[in-house]
Structures are given as C-alpha cells and as structure tokens.
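Please, does this match?
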Amino acid sequence: MTHKTAALFLLCALAACASTPTARVVAVTPPAQCPSASEPEPELSQMNLDQLDGLLRQVDPSARRQGGAWELDYRGVTVTVITDARADRMRMVVPVASVGELSPDHVQAIMVANFHTALDARYAVGEGVLFSTFIHRLSTLHELDVESAVRQTATLAATFGSSYSSGELIFGG
C-alpha cells in the first residue's frame, strides 16, 4: 500500500468515525466502501453574521461585536472571532504565547496535538504569535458547531504546556 493510498484510507475512516462517539479508529475501510463517501450531503442553511452573533451571545451574552468581529469570554479565556463575509471565512483565535518563547519540545507537542488531541481547533502561528484557532467557511458553519468551536479553541489555549487538548475526543490509531 502506498503512502497516498494509506492516507486516503485513514481520512475515510476518520470521516466515518466523526459522527460517532468512538474516539479511536480501529479498522480502516477502503474508500470505495466508506459509508460516508456515498451518503448525500444534507441541505444546509447559510450561516450569516446576524445568526453567528446570536449564537455567540448564547455562549457569552456580553459578547462585544464590531462589524464582522466579536470578542467574548469563555470560562475566563478571551476568544476573538473574525469573519470575512466576502471571502466566506471565519476564524476564532486565542493568543497563547510568543513564538520566541517556544522550545523544541513545545513545537513537537503542538504538532502531535494538531494530529491527535486538538481535533477541530488547531495551534497556528501568525505575526510571531502562537494561537489556538478554529477556521471554517462561514456559510457552511452549523449552529451546533459554534459553541463547540468556542469551547475547543479556549480549551486548547488553556491546556498549552500540559495536555495540549481541545477537551473533546482524542483520535489515536
């Protein structure tokens, strides 16, 4: 099996497991037999800024909005949400550390976390800062994903240096 084929099998298996409470992939299904590959996509309503505002205010009623950006508090962590409706993108970010403060062990742990324990949130670097972030297409963002994204982004920032976890399921393999 080539690396490319193995990667496709793994992605298919992860996609199939994403809708189940199972935290570990124990068998890899060939793409042609992957149940999620043949199922039609459900109809989705288009998320807009006003809908996102309402959902973010469910998380933090005192969330502050300025145009397409918000700042909210989740369990003592300030989460910034930035959108670009024309580009159909949104991102949630929490600054974690200066890149200059990262040791090689931190960098290794971050890379492992992005594969196993960060799940929908990720560590990312921008402007010399390590961020915990969640990035998604705005129009296809589902209302059930918003609170989870805030929680995962805040938790990933809070667990930097310890478990490096978004607090959700952990994928192994």
Notes: The first helix runs from residue 3 to 17. Strands lie at 64-66, 69-74, 77-84, 89-98, 122-126, 129-137.
